[in-house]
Amino acid sequence: MHISTDEAPAVVATSFDKLKGSFIYMICGVIGYLPFHTLRIFCLRMLKAKVGKRTGIYRGFEVRRPRLLTIGNSSVIGHGALLDARCGLTIGDNVNLSNEVMIWTLHHDYNDSNFAQTGAPVTIGNYAWICSRAVILPGVTIGEGAVVAAGAVVTRDVAPYTVVGGVPAKAIAKRNENLNYDLGDAILPII
């Protein structure tokens, strides 16, 4: 196959972008296992992630496209969390993401003949609690103070101060709206 000189730069740029993305992905894999929050957060900030003050990011987490990741103040990201920020991921203040939570912003369109990628940003409001092994799919907004029960699969927006659970997640309770705790007080420095 012959590639004209007009087309060659686009092919090279695409290959370079893939190589660069692969390199950043490998670096993020190493960052997830560094021994201290401050070191992990420093490295994420070097990769253009926006991480607030008094935030704890525990070991074993995975980040995809850190430059599109924003985490607010005093939030906690649990062990083994997967944060897919390829289409943009915003996590508010005092958010608790428990262990092994998966947040996806990009996936495949199973009806597309080419299995094309599709996605949208995810936003998680202040004081939200995403329990262990919950899955949040692209384009979802989790409202302020909302709770996603363990193992739930969230396919639609969750209203503020609503507790959801199940597959797919459905409203199961309401949460107290008078929240004023600071998760930054409970972060263990070396975990």
From TrEMBL:
Entry superkingdom: Bacteria
Gene Ontology CC: cytosol
Example GO molecular function: O-acyltransferase activity
Alphabetical keyword list: Membrane, Transferase, Transmembrane, Transmembrane helix
Family annotation (Pfam families): Hexapep (PF00132)
Xref: InterPro entries: Hexapep, Hexapeptide_acetyltransf, Trimer_LpxA-like_sf
Stretches that traverse the bilayer: 23-44
Database matches in PANTHER family: ACETYLTRANSFERASE C18B11.09C-RELATED, SIALIC ACID SYNTHASE-RELATED
Family: Belongs to the transferase hexapeptide repeat family.
The name this protein goes by in its record: Hexapeptide repeat of succinyl-transferase
The organism of origin for this protein: Mucilaginibacter gossypiicola
